[in-house]
From TrEMBL:
It comes from Candidatus Terasakiella magnetica. Keywords: 4Fe-4S, DNA damage, DNA repair, Hydrolase, Iron, Iron-sulfur, Metal-binding. It catalyses: Hydrolyzes single-stranded DNA or mismatched double-stranded DNA and polynucleotides, releasing free uracil. GO terms for molecular function: 4 iron, 4 sulfur cluster binding; metal ion binding; uracil DNA N-glycosylase activity. This is Type-4 uracil-DNA glycosylase. Its EC number is 3.2.2.27.
């Protein structure tokens, strides 16, 4: 609990005091009465990603692929549905349909501006309904290095720009210190985006289904920018792009090869602590600085 809260919570039966306390603690969304089978959502996300990759490799004339049924392996990961016709199963099916729609829109984009318009027109992610702005990207789309964060936070949502507020200030300071920004706030040498384009309520972590529905746009985004290097900020971004299940502490400092059919060449990819995490854990700034110097050194050789 936040010890600096001014709200007294002496009477737990007082609805007004309870609601005020919830707001101060950052609870700004309701939980539905239906439970969600996260195992089924996870399995469906894996199937959707496989389908997205298959459609990327297919000829352009065959983009309109039929609905794919989950594989036997994926089906075995989730419990068999009970007799209820509605509920979590319908949510998974809707997510799968939206993922296929996202794949179609993303692959039809021939440049970054067309992709931006596709994201703005996309209604398949429920986060868009609660967000103030669509946060697409910032910086130079012709830059050699592309930074990818997790999701917009409060300041990003208000301004419509990735890495704003305190997170953005620290991020810009890091970039200027290592030479990637000539002056503070000048992002003309880098390109920045997020896995998600809309802020999750309460700045909570993105769900697997939310990542799945935005991932086709991100993968196409990377192809259109075609960077020499990709830096993934935070564990969620690293897991989504690299496909690894290890935490950020194990992924940072390592190098991976990111290759898709739409890239002119494989991109070098690595993970870095998210600026928001560094603000909460300043002791990790030393490790992040060392990683950042290694990133700049490797970029000069590409």
């Amino acid at each position: 609990m936040n010890q600096h809260s001014d709200t007294t919570f002496d009477d737990p039966m007082n609805p007004e005091a309870l609601l005020k306390w919830y707001v101060e603690m950052g609870v700004d969304e309701c939980i539905t009465s239906e439970s969600v089978d996260r195992y089924a959502v996870s399995a469906q996300m894996l199937e959707a990603k496989k389908a997205a990759q298959a459609q990327q490799q297919a000829p352009q004339t065959n983009r309109q692929a039929p609905q794919q049924a989950p594989s036997q392996g994926a089906a075995s990961l989730s419990p068999k549905p009970k007799t209820q016709p509605n509920g979590p199963a319908q949510q998974v099916q809707a997510t799968d349909e939206m993922v296929h729609m996202a794949v179609e829109l993303a692959q039809n984009a021939k440049n970054v501006e067309q992709l931006r318009e596709a994201v703005l027109s996309f209604e398949g992610c429920h986060l868009k309904k609660t967000a103030m702005n669509t946060v697409f990207a910032d910086g130079n789309p012709k830059a050699d290095i592309m930074f990818i964060g997790e999701a917009p936070a409060t300041d990003e949502d208000r301004q419509g720009v990735p890495f704003a507020g305190d997170n953005g200030k620290l991020f810009d300071q890091m970039l200027q210190s290592c030479g990637l920004e000539e002056k503070l706030g000048d992002r003309s040498n880098v390109y920045i985006t997020n896995v998600l384009f809309w802020r999750p309520p309460g700045n909570r972590n993105p769900t697997l289904s939310e990542i799945a529905v935005c991932l086709p746009f991100l993968e196409r985004h990377i192809e259109l920018v075609d960077p020499k290097m990709i830096v993934l900020l935070g564990g969620a971004a690293a897991k989504a792009v690299l496909g690894h299940h290890e935490g950020i502490s194990r992924l940072r400092g390592r190098w991976f090869t990111h290759a898709t059919p739409g890239l002119s060449r494989p991109a070098q990819a690595t993970a870095l602590f998210h600026p928001a995490y560094l603000l909460r854990s300043p002791a990790q700034k030393r490790r992040a600085w060392g990683d950042l110097l290694s990133i700049v050194e490797k970029l000069e050789t590409l």
